[in-house]
User: Fold these one by one.
Assistant:
Number 1:
Amino acid sequence: MRRAAILVVDDEPGIRELLSQILADEGFSVTTVASGEEALAAVSREVFDLVMLDIKLPGMDGLEVLRQLKVGGKRLPVVMISGHATVEQAAQAVREGAADFLEKPLGLERVLVTVNNVLERAQLAERLQEEEEDVELTGVSPAIVELRRQILLAAPTDSRVLITGPNGSGKEVVARLLHRHSRRAAGPFVALNCAAIPAELIESELFGHTKGAFTGAVEAKRGKFELADGGTLLLDEVGDMSLLTQAKVLRVLQESRFTRLGGATEIRVDVRVIAATNKDLEAEIAAGRFRQDLYFRLNVIPIRVPSLAERREDIPLLVETFMAKLGKRMGVKPKKVTPEAMEALLAYPWPGNVRELRNLVERLLIMVPGDEVTPADLPMKLAETEVFWPGRPLPLKQAREAFEREYIARVLRACDQNMSQAARVLGLERSHLYRKVKALGIKVDGGTGES
Ligand SMILES: Nc1ncnc2c1ncn2[C@@H]1O[C@H](COP(=O)(O)OP(=O)(O)OP(=O)(O)O)[C@@H](O)[C@H]1O
Ligand SMILES: [Mg+2]
């Protein structure tokens, strides 16, 4: 992490020197000023992480400076410095938003502990704020407006919701919004990615375990169901649970109680379960990989998140939003996308949906040197927007074949040669796409064909 910058405001030269020394020795970058007026000027010029502010100052006093700093909801933390006579005012300052106060004489230890605590708290608050910001459903397309309407209808009901949609389309965002707009909003939101956890560990993740329940269980651990008590549990990638785990989850959903692994006591919980998947669960049921009874339990309110290709009109707004948000986080100025480059973004099939768009914007912010993104700055696969023309007049049947060959090859490139993903984009069964690729003589290189 970069060195935190601290502004020290005190009219006594001795205190300025003492604090400079203590803080500089600790590796902070320190600026000192002698009055409130100078402090406000410094803050408008430079970025600080913390202000140490004397209460008794000539001219504008510390409390007034604090109020000025807090106008506009600035998150800059302020530590007040008080003399013996001003402790009451210091307490008042804390009520008005100061992070903490220190009493003179200033001891080295106290100063460092206070400064480090306040900085740590401020960083935590910023991280939480960043997470908050991520829970946003950007878009004005009819598909997104409809999605928002469904979220607001479903959220307060406490019913189970099954969220389906392709990779990176925003399923987790939807789950978080359902929680935030429910009567459980003050309770925990806990997510478990069922695909990321080995089958033999998923039960202990869900239900917890007692000490010694299995090799490696050196301590008792609470499971996600317990952690989510009073709140919402997201079973993410729910289509990837083994049939055995499905049976156990089904039992919890039926009875609202379970036991920890190795434990005897039944635990009761009040949890709203939301499930998400990018699989077609009905197809999984037909294939014998997903329990139908569990499906019916989970799928009380179905919500389908549209792919980005279904709501292309949101692309410019999403680009702008990510430019601003990521730019701010990275400390980089947002870049303008030229109309030609935007045309390419609008034409691209976006197999990775909003996540792919977000990653692209992040990459552009880092890689493009100027203020403007032109088509030349885009990855190759994104620049292929011209409509295909076979080069000479052909009978329709041959032209159609030529177009299909070119188009399927482009979509495969966009999907990094992943057959399953390309099949989804094209709206074909995977086996059908295989036959086409073979019949049209399209070369598939590098791809595994797996999803
Ligand atoms: N409508 C949206 N507006 C703004 N950001 C969005 C939107 N939809 C998704 N995102 C962002 O895109 C990224 C992917 O979203 P999310 O993780 O919710 O997708 P997902 O459908 O759960 O993906 P996966 O199938 O890979 O689990 C996140 O960074 C999320 O914040
Ligand atoms: Mg997800």
Number 2:
Amino acid sequence: MTTTGEPTRRAIAAMLGSHKRENRNLIPLLQEMQTAFGYLPRAALREIASFLEVPPVDVWGVATFYNQFRFLPLGKYPIKVCLGTACHLARGRAILESLERELDIKVGGITADSNFSLDRVACIGCCMLAPVMVVGDKIHSRMTPFKAEEALIPHKQEIQRELSDSEEAP
Ligand code: FES
């Protein structure tokens, strides 16, 4: 289960403690940390390196090699664009690029206000609906660049409402 958020030393130590001190556990550890925190915090990478007794640069090198890992926290509304085969053929990349422009971030990034993060994923299992994207828990099907930008509007309105409410609060 993804808990996301700032990692604690105790949480990191607990995950390390459930693995043997073997190099082949590097990727499982990276995956587990990302599932737990929503991203790979620097502290976690350092602790993994120390646990496996390998240079931190080696851990960083492996983590950055794979698209599946991200190094910044997730936004309040995490966006995932599918680039599996069916979605790729249905111009999924155009969806990703339009969101990069709309949010002014690159894939793997998070907006300055921490509201949106953007990632690409492999097949999420609904290829008949390609191209698809996910915002939070909601799957959006048969996307076009225009529809992708439109899908953000309710979240932007929600953000605006919350901002107004907090300004009105005494
Ligand atoms: S390839 Fe995108 S859902 Fe399968």
